[in-house]
Amino acid sequence: MTTSDLWDADAADRYDEAVADMFAPDVLTPTVDLLADLAREGRALEFAIGTGRVAIPLAERGVDVTGIELSQPMVDRVHAKRPDLPVTIGDMATIVVPGEFSLVYLVFNTIGNLRTQAEQVACFRNAARHLGPGGRFVIEVEVPSLRRLPPGQAGVPFDISDSHLGVDTYDVVTQQAISHHFTRQPDGTYRRGTHNFRYVWPSELDLMAQLAGMELEGRYAGWSREPFTADSESHVSVWRRHGEPGPQSVQTLRT
């Protein structure tokens, strides 16, 4: 059983509005540009496809896109927009879909939805299992904000606006974290929501890739391939599968 939070119908219905800034052309266009370039003439598989924010415009570029998603209500939202986009319901760390892909990708911090290191390692292995030789696995994820966490303080605000307050709280021993969202409603009240995740460092991801038979090809501060530096708050990392994976079943990758 996965440790991921499960998005229910209410959360799925509100999702696109809650992340409306992620649909902005200056955010979405560079994302789709890079993924289309990496997919080339091959097929693309999105882990945790959500409501299709990235997959649908990527498919509109002519890329053959397939998705995996844990939440049926989120898949329903995808199919309300694009009925012909194939999506398999299941855990991105274990479920296998037919065929071979030149690109597997996972965006918007979603690797953290897997809240154990073992599940995150299994996710990398599952990506490698779906890739043909030379195929790429791409992840977009924040660099943990612990540099902004003074001793004795548990939380770091990540958004403060008239309509929303967001605070991340961290357990620096277990790498478990919670995003706390306070969203202003039309009547002036606030709705509180939480999202659990496991934060992960770039070097830790590189080791997961190595265990899965992949090597780092590029790391950028954003989708426009900006240089990644010590001050970067997020990264887009690309690993390349360099050989056939070992004979491992789905069951042996779960702990």
UniProtKB/TrEMBL annotation:
Q: Which part of the chain is the Methyltransferase domain?
A: 45-135
Question: Which example biological process does GO assign this protein?
Answer: methylation
Molecular function (Gene Ontology), one example: methyltransferase activity
Query: SUPFAM superfamilies under this entry?
Result: S-adenosyl-L-methionine-dependent methyltransferases
**Keyword Methyltransferase found:** yes
**Keyword terms:** Methyltransferase, Transferase
Q: Which Gene3D superfamilies match?
A: Vaccinia Virus protein VP39 (3.40.50.150)
Would the keyword rRNA-binding be found if you checked this record's keyword annotation? no
Matching entries from InterPro entries are given as:
Methyltransf_25, SAM-dependent_MTases_sf
The protein, known as: Methyltransferase type 11
**Source taxonomy:** Bacteria, Bacillati, Actinomycetota, Actinomycetes, Micrococcales
